[in-house]
Amino acid sequence: DVKVTQSSRYLVKRTGEKVFLECVQDMDHENMFWYRQDPGLGLRLIYFSYDVKMKEKGDIPEGYSVSREKKERFSLILESASTNQTSMYLCASSNAVAYEQYFGPGTRLTVT
Amino acid sequence: SQQGEEDPQALSIQEGENATMNCSYKTSINNLQWYRQNSGRGLVHLILIRSNEREKHSGRLRVTLDTSKKSSSLLITASRAADTASYFCATDPYNNNDMRFGAGTRLTVKP
Q: Closest-CA residue in chain A for B39?
């Protein structure tokens, strides 16, 4: 059974803190993605990666960075959290030839 | 702005009725996908239709694609209360694996 896990379901951080969101997949997928989901805006792509140590900016990369040191793990980093980064963060993965994405359960991040 | 736009934003029906959701997009695509999201959870892939296909079925789901109108529809037949969820369309506007999602249709099926 395919599985994408995210490190936390709920997270509360203070403004200015550095925040790490971890995502791990066990399907040996090449592609991994980070989205944020906000009411009325749907899912917006932050960053994605096609391979280890590779990263590509999505539509809203400002204020975020990513790290992919191992194939199965894709981390999203908020260098200095701000209140406008309060959101649901979703990680997904897919293999190199198929478009179907598998999603983790999401991390609801609140920045106070 | 979003690549895909679902319509309507919200839909409420009785159990047993059919539910139709629409998706419009802006650029040429290789494929279009539909996903379901139960409240507060991750998305689950439902069905993929390629740009050279016009219709596809999967159980109670029927998806159509009209590339000339840049639109797709998802039909759920004989709906059940368990179909209550948000439904999203996703497309590949850059012809690679990074998909773009719409804002979703919130479907409520009343028992």
A: A105
Q: Which of B3, B39, B58, B97 to mutate to test the interface with A (most CBs of A within 10 A)?
A: B97
* Distance from the Cα of residue A78 to its chain's centroid: 11
Kindly state the DSSP code that residue B53 receives in the 8-state scheme: -
* pLDDT in 10s for each residue of chain B, 111 residues: 456 788 899 999 999 999 999 999 988 888 999 999 998 788 999 999 999 999 999 999 999 999 999 999 999 999 999 999 999 999 987 767 788 998 899 999 999
- The partner residues of B75 in beta bridges, in order of sequence, read B20, B62
Cβ contact (<8 Å) for A103 and B43?
Answer: yes
What's the gap in Å between the CA of B39 and the closest CA on chain A? 11
| Closest by Cα among A20, A49, A42 to B43 | A42
How many helices (H) and strands (E) chain B has is answered by: 0, 11
Q: Which residues of chain A have a CB within 8 Å of the CB of B41?
A: 105-106
